[in-house]
Specification:
Blueprint: E1 3-6, E2 19-20, E3 23-24, H1 41-54, E4 61-63, H2 70-74, H3 79-91, E5 94-95, E6 101-102, H4 106-125, E7 131-134, H5 156-167, E8 173-177, H6 184-189, E9 196-203, E10 226-231, H7 237-255, E11 259-264, H8 281-298, E12 303-307, H9 316-328, H10 339-344, H11 349-365
Parallel strand pairs: 1-4, 1-7, 7-12, 8-9, 8-11, 9-10, 11-12
Antiparallel strand pairs: 2-3, 5-6
Helix pairs in contact: 1-9, 4-5, 7-8, 7-11, 8-9
The chain binds zinc ion.
Length: 368
């Protein structure tokens, strides 16, 4: 087996500083127990713990990486933003964007998260590994070049793509963002770029508000290489797979990339507190299998998953385990303890037919 798993305990030490959720402490605001962020280390640490307990990590090449260098960060983020972030991080942290609080030392941890994704991309492009997973934290897909937001402080995937393109200028990359929130940061960074296809599946009108519309197709030279699929709340297993088959796979196939990167959030999971979708661990397994098969068909299997959101402490580990099983081909399983309950909550036939019709309608609008 040849799947690399990039992670680093230090990324679990990222906290929200003097904030609870995104609200400053003081007055009647009680501090939260787990580092002050809903994007707590617990979901990701428990995912790694589950993989250790079942032995799945033994089937992966587990490793860390260096932090992204300043040169690498500057290919995406302006110096002014990096200097401000670093100064606040050296002091005592704070809130630098929209819903992106961090504690002292947050800059170095964010650069390390970007470094994990960058190393994962490099490892796959050089052929050192067939595919790779980066357990990046803090996440990156909401972070725009000069505006961090939504718990995201550096654009992990954008930084990784630009690092790869620095030595491979002709590289074409497709980014599939199945985090339940809109991948506005990745979209904005590559909005005018014809060499990077960005696709976001997300719950319509969740976060951020005012972005992620079907009609946002990119601008200038990038016209047509951005694609949004805003899905209704309640979208479940079969409709997610239909979206992959009907929209995602044909769009990526037509773009013909050299590499596929998945912005892998698990917050479309049915019990996530920050969304209202009904995906299960099986959904993530099957989406991973479909994208892996697609990568094998069109880009020599080159596939990297970079962790984004996912806020259910109980369920993210099982969704993550299923994803890594599919990615690596490991036979080590972690049976989903919530499968029965969540399968019983899937959309009924009429709602499912409506969801599929919505996806078909959007596919037509996108000329797919
Ligand atoms: Zn999310």
């Amino acid at each position: 087996m040849s799947t690399a798993f990039f992670w680093d305990e230090r990324t679990m030490w990222h906290g929200g500083g003097n904030y609870a959720f995104t609200v400053p402490l003081g007055g009647l605001v009680q501090p939260l127990a787990a580092g002050g962020l809903p994007e707590s280390p617990e979901t990701k640490r428990r995912m790694k713990n589950l993989m250790d307990v079942t032995g799945l990590t033994n089937d992966l090449h587990v490793t860390s990486a260096d932090a992204a260098t300043t040169e690498q960060l500057l290919r995406v983020h302006p110096q002014e933003y990096l200097s401000k972030f670093k100064a606040m991080s050296d002091d005592q942290g704070g809130e630098i964007g929209h819903h992106a609080p961090f504690a002292k030392g947050g800059y170095e941890i964010a650069a390390l998260a970007a470094g994990l994704t960058t190393a994962a991309v490099e490892a796959v492009l050089t052929g050192a590994y067939e595919n790779a997973y980066a357990l990046a934290r803090p996440p990156g897909h909401h972070c725009e070049a000069a505006t961090p937001m939504g718990f995201c402080l550096m654009a992990n995937i954008g930084i990784a793509i630009e690092a790869a393109k620095a030595t491979r200028p002709d590289l074409r990359v497709a980014v599939l963002d199945w985090d339940v929130h809109h991948g506005n940061g990745t979209e904005s960074i590559f909005r005018e770029r014809p060499d990077v296809l960005t696709i976001s599946l997300h719950q319509a009108g969740n976060y951020p508000l005012e972005t992620g519309y079907l009609t946002d197709r990119g601008t200038g030279a990038g016209e047509g290489t951005n694609l949004n699929l805003p899905l209704p709340a309640g979208t479940g297993h079969t409709a997610y797979l239909h979206a992959i088959d009907r929209v995602v796979a044909p769009a990526i196939e037509a773009f013909n990339p050299d590499l596929i990167i998945v912005a892998c959030g698990f917050d479309a999971g049915a019990v996530d507190p920050l969304a209202r979708m009904l995906a299960t661990a099986e959904t993530f397994r099957e989406m991973t299998l479909k994208i892996k098969a697609l990568a094998e068909r069109i880009c020599d299997g080159k596939l990297v998953l970079s962790h984004e959101g996912g806020y259910s402490e109980i369920y993210v580990p099982f969704c993550g385990h299923a994803t890594l099983e599919a990615l690596s081909g490991s036979k080590i399983t972690a049976p989903d303890p919530m499968a029965r309950a969540l399968n019983n909550r899937q959309p009924g036939p009429r709602f499912d037919a409506f969801l599929r019709a919505e996806i078909d309608h959007m596919a037509q609008q996108l000329n797919l």
